[in-house]
Every structure is written in C-alpha cells, then in structure tokens.
Specification:
single chain, 213 residues, alpha+beta, Double Stranded RNA Binding Domain, 6-stranded antiparallel beta sheet, flat
C-alpha cells in the first residue's frame, strides 16, 4: 500500500513540474512583443505603398491639323459651282484639297466690307443661290453668309487679311458634288428602228374563213 501511495505522489509532482515549464511569463511577453512589432512594420509598409504617388509617363501631345493641304495649282477646281460669283479683282491665295465632302478656297481682294457684302448678296440671289443666314460684325469687320445651290450647301466669310490689313480675305467653303456610280444605274437600251415600220400581215381568223365559204 505504501509503495502505491508513493507512486501516485511522484506522478502528481511530475505533472506539476510539466505545467510550470509550459507557461513561462517572460517568454510569452517576448513572443507578444515580437508579433506586435511585426504587425506594426507591415502596417507602415502598406501605408507607404498606398501614399506613394504613382508617376505615369505622359505621352507626347498629338497635333491635329484642321486645315487641309493645298492643291498643286491655284486654278479654280472643276467641282466649284458653275455660277459662283467672283468679286472683281479677287486673287486666289489657297485652293485646299477636299476634306471629307467639303473644299475650301481662299481669295484676297481690295475693297471695303460694305461694298463686298452688297456685291455677294446681290450676285448670289441673281445666280439662284438661296441664302439661309447672314451675320455681320462691324467691330471686327467680319461678315459670314450661309447658302445652298441645288441642294449643295456652302458659306462665305469676309475678314481682314492677316498679311495685308488693307485687303479682305474671302473664305469660300462648299460641298463637293455627289458622284453617281454608273454601275448601280440601269443599262440604257438603244433601238436602231427609225420611224414606224410596215405593218406585218396578220394571220386570217378561222371564223372569217367560214363566213366567206
């Protein structure tokens, strides 16, 4: 009985030592401090990544020219209105290439704006151009006029020349004529018969033969 008692007592002592070794307050404090320091470092690193400005390389600006290049010749193009009035003494300065369905021609002329405005208003009406709007700004010596001719719109603007302030610039913009695709049109039939021909003899009617007999 005594040996059994001492055996149980020894077992309880060993368990007490085991529990005392597993819970070590200094080690537990150090472990908690290390975890807190690590978490603080990670938070600081994430905050630095978020607040750091992201530099994006700016692409060079794209320059878009709204002015079409000039034609090789200053001769008036054949697509211009056939009855477009020309101011007396006007000189062709630029004939722009078509841009989309529109073309621009710039003239320069010696004259006063009121006389030039009166000329274009009268000449456009006489040549069957329908004026839809007209605007004059005397302070800027500028006049603009919108019109159309047989369904084709156009506009004229008068303003002082940049090179010579004593001359006026005539800026004409108009729509190009529509080109019809001949392949989409019905073929034209030509007959070589001239005048009425001789009437062909008709076959006799069987009922008429019976009446004659």
């Amino acid at each position: 009985m005594r040996s059994l008692f001492f055996c149980r007592l020894t077992l309880l002592k060993n368990l007490g030592l085991l529990f005392n070794k597993t819970v070590n307050p200094p080690d537990l404090f150090i472990s908690r401090f290390a975890r807190a320091a690590l978490a603080a470092g990670l938070i600081a690193l994430l905050a630095a990544c978020k607040t750091r400005p992201v530099q994006i390389a700016a692409s060079p600006p794209v320059q878009i020219s709204m002015t079409a290049p000039d034609e090789s010749s200053k001769a008036l193009p054949p697509d211009l209105y056939k009855t477009m009035p020309m101011y007396p003494g006007a000189i062709v300065e630029h004939v722009r290439k078509p841009k989309g369905a529109m073309r621009e021609i710039l003239f320069s002329a010696q004259g006063q704006m009121p006389q030039m405005v009166g000329f274009f208003k009268d000449a456009l009406k006489k040549n069957d151009f329908h004026i839809t709007s007209s605007l004059i700004m005397p302070a800027r010596k500028t006049w603009s006029c919108d019109f159309h001719y047989k369904g084709r719109p156009g506009s004229i603007m008068l303003f002082p020349s940049d090179e010579d302030k004593s001359r006026m610039t005539i800026d004409l913009i108009y729509e190009l004529p529509a080109h019809l695709d001949e392949s989409m049109m019905e073929p034209k039939e030509d007959f070589d018969v001239i005048g009425p021909g001789e009437i062909a003899q008709q076959a006799p009617n069987p009922s008429e033969k019976e009446k004659r007999n």
